[in-house]
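One-letter codes give the sequence; backbone shape is given numerically. An example follows:

. . .
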Amino acid sequence: MSQSHSPFGAWIRPMTARHTGEEHRSATMLELFFDLCFVAAVAQASVAFEHELAEGHIGHGILGYAMVFFAIWWAWMNFTWFASAYDTDDVPYRLLTLVQIAGALVVAAGAGEALAHEDFTVITWGYVVMRLAMVTQWLRAARSDPERRRSCLRYAVGILVVQVGWVARLALPEDWGLPLFAVLVLAEIAVPVWAESAAMTTWHPHHIAERYGLFTLIVLGETMTAATAAVRTALDDEAALGDIATLVVGGVLTVFALWWLYFSQNAPRRLTGLKAAILWGYGHYLVFASAAAVGAGLAVNVAHATGHGHLSDRAAAATFTVPAAVFITLVWLLHHRADELRSRNDLIHPVAVLAVLAMTFTPVPVLGTGILAAALVAATLVVAERARGGADLPKDAT
């Protein structure tokens, strides 16, 4: 049964589960606001990542970016799936969501320090604030939904225990930081698997697909914003437009193509059960992270072309070609079943990915990546049209 949502929110409602087949289920204004604030954290992480790459700290930058992005992505993802099942839109729900947004802004404030100096204190406290707000939400759901109370309590207990680990990590010796981070990440991603095994929550496939699509859209938009800022900076430094023209064209082509490739997929039909949902949902960590990294890579290449930065030509090129290849690969894999990866047509994506990576060793890696990505879009359109034409043929057609 659907729930009516007042534009001002109700004082309090029982947090009962929403129906998985609810019609016209779409993102709310609060969810959109949540996404926009979280993208502020993505933007700060991308800027810090770009700075580390430009300074030649590739390994250090990638590791720090992966760690910071996990905090952003995991908090966003947990709220998204919870809201799909238990969005009551009452005052406590809204307030707890705003607390999570505040935590995301704290994470954004700490991103630069984390990547530059491996100081995760600010990010940890912002992350814990977000996660403790989710503990309260799950306890509310446990009280109002007896059918899935066991699952809700598992979520609450699991999240709470892991947050104790994150806080304790701050007090431990520095040498323990990375190994303990890996252990806590595994614990975090194990909580939903453990909790949902008791009774699956009532997330809505179309709503989830829309929420992920919207976040992808916003991250790609942030990528364009970062690239525009880099070009503006280069022009302000009196760089010749001809020096960066191929980067601008290639960058725009690439982002347009990544958008097209992502939104040509039918995501809801993949979300058919817990295993598929876990793989699809978790796999988007690399989709989101690589989409944001494309913008950072383009900015690095613009700086490199104008004589700034400390990277070699190949290393600078790789900061753009590698995340683009990762994005294409993950989008392809996440939206296809194993039995669909057996035809000649499915060679298109692997060949395109290898060709994009090969652009790293050419004089025009960004432009070459853009052209290849656009060609991949054209190829997928041709294949889809042929498949549609074959499906429309009468059964006795030869």
